[in-house]
Amino acid sequence: MTRDAESFVAFFRNLNVGQRNNPTTSQLVSAFYSAGAVEAFSVQGNGTVVFSALQATRVCDDALLTVQSVCAYSGIAMVRPLSRVLQLAEQFDTSEVVSRLELSVFDHVESFPVGLPLAGRRCRIVMAGRDYAITENEREGESNATLVLERILQVPVTSRGAPTILRLAARAIR
Asked: Residue 153: which H helix or E strand, with range?
């Protein structure tokens, strides 16, 4: 990514690239460039975009409006600094159960309201902060964190599996 602007990750909630009522990869990435991103790429078809911009929140908000104008997508997007996502990805590198882990992001909460680890429905929350949680699913290939965290926090949550986050990290640091 470019050195002139900071790099960020946009996590779109419930966006599935190319599916009905969702943008294509080209539409999604173009929306970021139209909004003023210096660089942008989609990590995979789940609405995860790495981009560089001087004003990340404004660029993401404008890209979201563009996406909503070209298709029936009605979700939200949450932005995190790429450096923070890479820092959290390091947690996955050392795990023996990496294929069962998820990173979830949500709007800032005052503090995570419960002690950890915390058992949820078919998963357990193993690490959390004011705007993220790392969850271990009982079985490989499952994704249970979003519903569990939304019940606890009462805010919208979106989650990505560790393999997605590790692919993002590998591509972003090239």
From this structure: helix 145-153
